[in-house]
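How a chain folds remains the central question behind the approach discussed here. For one protein, we set the task of working out the structure tokens from the amino acid sequence alone. The sequence in question and its structure tokens are set out directly beneath this paragraph.

_____
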Amino acid sequence: MYSNKVGLIDIGSNTIRMVIYAIDQYYDVHEITNLKAPARLSQYLNKDKNDQVMMSDKGIQKLTETLASFNYAARAHKIEELIVFATAAIRQSANQEQIIQRVLEETGIEIRILSEKEEASLGQYAISHSLPNRNMVTIDMGGGSCEITLSENKEIKQYHSFPFGVVSLKEKFFKDKDHNDSTAIEKTRRYLQKTFKSLDWLKKVKYPIVAVGGSARNIAQVHQRLQNYPIAGLHGYRLSEKNLNTTLDLFQSTNYQDMQDIDGLSSDRTDIIIPANLALIELFQIVNAPTLFISRQGLRDGVITYYLNDHFNQPINPEHIHVRSVAKVCRDFKVHPKVAEIRSKIAIDLYKQLTDLGQMDYSYAQQVELEMASYLYRCGQFISKEADSQTTFYLLSNMDLAGFSHRDRVRLALLSSYRNKSLLNQYCQSFRNWFSSEDIKELQALGGILKFSQSLNDSKTSPIKNIKLEKKKKDYILTLYHNGPVVAEQYRADRHAKHIARSLDGSLKLKYVDLEA
């Protein structure tokens, strides 16, 4: 049930976009509609006789016509609040007051112009609430501006806004030239190198880069298609400098008429994708970054997340975003909370006892991973009980789970779907370069704990009250303390005990003790 509907209109230099969000009782945000108009307002900025940057009447008309259309859609969706904000194109216009007044008169919409600092802060706010990275350099490259931030422990330490973007770079260096003109490319490279080097705090910082914006996402999408990436989703996707050079080589070597045939490349970005690609490569070199991540969360997401925390007593904590993701999946997939809680308690208890006896290596991160997987274990049964493992793996590995890297998301899917060694190996076939043999062995051991823990509440009556794993000479005894009959649990546990025994350096015997006897 939705408690609120909020509309955002983001007036960028390249595109104008309206997103309508519905907010539910758990403060989860659901995208109702997403409308986009490639207005390219930066093309309508020209200097007057006094050398002031002004937006032309034609540009203002384009803006008002687009906003009027969006406003009609917003009223049709009966939103409670409409938040409208503008960035570089209007911020750079000397006639911004005239623009704001004309829009208000013709559409009834009031525009708020974000400062460079506000734009950078809101973009970083979105990233810190959706990616696990603590230290990073972010680049948000729009049509007419480029925001760079340096963040440590998820807080901005430095920021800068450059007055150029993919559209203005194209106009500056590629006007009346081919999209892949070698001279224009070299001049763009030198300009970007000099510009990025002007920020002393950016040089050799060696933090990962997080790239925001449609052009960065488009480059990543092309790269995914080139290598038949095995899972869906761009958020958290990693690119190396070599990967970025691969996409640049493709764009440079393709005739403009054939650019639209490149799988994954948006038709409205064919003429600006090379400047965007060059910016990412040059920033990579200046920062000496280990890798680059793509974020689907940008300015609009920062605005709506800030709105939620400001209006509803801080419900979204950046330290617990992975927990929120798992909780939402549990709700969406109709996971029984009490059954999941019992399974989780048994799994963590057994894991700790195995590590205490030196049969597994303990880490807190692994305990958290096991706990989350225990809540999601075989959650795909809400679609198909017969194919619950396959459904669970497919859904979780392809979902956009905030707070998880792509690798960690697949690990979670492998654990949550665990049925046996054969299926685990089958699922891993598409991820041969992601996991070592030791990783797979570890996943099998953790998956075995989950499967065995599931068996101890087969009747859904919570009969097992305590478990104790002890070593007796060369063998192990797992005592299961229960209340009342455990016929179903004993049958399942005896069958699945082998999944625990594989992790032991001796044989395993189960012992049942009735606390009511």
Notes: The CA atoms of residues 249 and 286 lie 20 Å apart.
